[in-house]
Design a protein that fits this description.
Layout lengths: L3 E7 L2 H16 L5 E6 L5 H8 L4 E4 L8 H7 L21 E5 L3 E3 L13 E4 L7 E8 L3 H14 L6 H8 L18 E2 H6 L1 H7 L5 E3 L10 E3 L4 E3 L8 H15 L9 H7 L9 H16 L11 H15 L19 H5 L2 H8 L13
Parallel strand pairs: 1-2, 1-4, 2-3, 8-9
Antiparallel strand pairs: 4-7, 5-9, 6-7, 10-11
Helix pairs in contact: 1-8, 1-9
The chain binds uridine-5'-diphosphate, alpha-D-glucopyranose (GLC) and manganese (II) ion.
Pfam families: Glyco_transf_8 (PF01501)
GO molecular function, one term: glycogenin glucosyltransferase activity
Organism: Tribolium castaneum (Red flour beetle)
């Protein structure tokens, strides 16, 4: 093949949704380079077929997992051991040069100029700017580099349990040696940075070329109103509403219509939903389930939908429905004092959890989203 390619990775159907949106975003900005996606056995055949309609190459690779639980715990992302699988990108030797993009990135403007850079070019990580963030990097495929990286991984491991800790140890002179390998932040604008330095985001945000939804606030885990097709982001990413909507617009227009129920994870769940139509009871139940999943990974709308008042109302409604007709009913929230715990007085924690659980029983938890 030769030439240049954008490369991403998906180990399951949920992350594949991110890969698909990313690929469409690259096409929308008119990139002239090829698209490749690494998939592992966790990606279903129907999803691979869907990926093949947008990517020039769908390459199966085996999972590489650091299994480094203690460092992953420090990172608060136990699931990221599998990001070692990224290393396979160095084996795509049919290309001369590539840019790796995480599946949780979205390309906002054409950035084909990235291929003028050399290995290993990347932007600083917002958590520790003397490290690069490994969600966007320029590299040269080489079996030799791949072997060395795997050897290095076996001997030295990774300080964060994921690929970023490994790659920063391997390309250890990145911080000091050659400034041309420091990509401007606009090529890997980390969503959390917008929040921690909002004035800079207001000043420079419009220049962003690639946005990276790092952490647990993935676009596909945001609350999305299937009836209005509008995303309703949690406060931590509220300032990114327009960009998140851009992600969902691509999803609704180009991806959702081709999803099938034999896909797994969120892809399979979304295949069962009709967008833009009044919600059926089943759809509302699924929405609740997705919202609960978002809640569990920390996407909580403290001041809005998930506010104390709303939770309290929900508890009262549920209890009223369960109490005998003549029992006194209350909808008044308890005063915010330390010992006011009227609910616990009459119900055990387990009973309370059972009464207020919103997950419909017939929907099984989605795997690994
Ligand atoms: N990834 C994947 N499956 C997983 C976790 C991660 O395919 O279960 C891939 C995907 O390409 C993802 C990348 O590895 O974008 C890095 O993970 P993530 O973006 O979740 O890490 P973060 O950028 O939030 O630290
Ligand atoms: C980071 C990067 C991501 C990487 C992860 C684990 O936050 O954004 O690409 O996979 O750390 O090292
Ligand atoms: Mn990422």
């Amino acid at each position: 093949m030769g030439g240049f390619a954008w490369v991403t990775l998906a180990t399951n159907d949920s992350y594949s949704l991110g890969a698909l949106v990313l690929a469409h975003s690259l096409k929308q900005v008119g990139s002239k380079h090829q698209l490749a996606v690494l998939v592992t056995p966790g990606v279903t055949n129907p999803m691979r077929a869907k990926l093949a309609t947008v990517f020039d190459l769908v390459q199966e690779v085996n999972i590489l997992d650091s299994k480094d639980e203690s460092n992953l715990r420090l990172l608060k992302r136990p699931e990221l051991g599998v990001t070692f699988t990224k290393l396979h990108c160095w084996r795509l030797t049919q290309f001369d040069k590539c840019v790796f993009l995480d599946a949780d990135t979205l390309v906002l403007q054409n950035c084909d100029e990235l291929f003028e850079r050399e290995e290993l070019s990347a932007a600083p990580d917002v958590g520790w700017p003397d490290c690069f963030n490994s969600g966007v990097f320029v590299f040269r495929p080489s079996n030799e580099t791949y072997d060395k990286l795997v050897q290095f991984a076996v001997e030295k491991g990774s300080f964060d349990g994921g690929d970023q800790g490994l790659l920063n140890l391997y390309f250890s002179d990145w911080a000091t040696k050659d400034i041309s390998k420091h990509l401007p932040f606009i090529y890997n604008l980390c969503s959390t940075a917008c929040y921690s330095y909002l004035p800079a985001f207001k000043q420079f945000g419009a220049d962003a070329k690639i946005i990276h939804f790092i952490g647990s606030s993935k676009p596909w885990l945001q609350y999305f109103n299937t009836e209005t097709r509008k995303v309703q982001p949690t406060p931590d990413v509220k300032h990114l509403e327009a960009i998140l909507q851009q992600w969902w617009n691509i999803f609704c227009l180009l991806i959702h219509p081709t999803l099938t129920p034999d896909m797994t994870g969120l892809a399979g769940a979304f295949a069962q939903l009709t967008l833009g139509a009044p919600r059926t009871a089943e759809q509302s139940a699924l929405d609740d389930h997705l919202r609960r999943q978002g809640w569990e990974v920390g996407n909580i709308d403290y001041m809005g939908r998930d506010s104390f008042d709303n939770i309290w109302n929900k508890i009262c409604q549920t209890l009223s429905a369960a109490l005998p007709e003549d029992a006194p009913k209350t909808t008044e929230a308890p005063p915010p004092s330390t010992d006011a715990k009227p609910i616990e007085k009459s119900l055990t924690e387990g009973q309370l959890a059972a009464k207020t659980a919103i997950m419909p029983k017939k929907i099984t938890p989605l795997a690994n989203v």
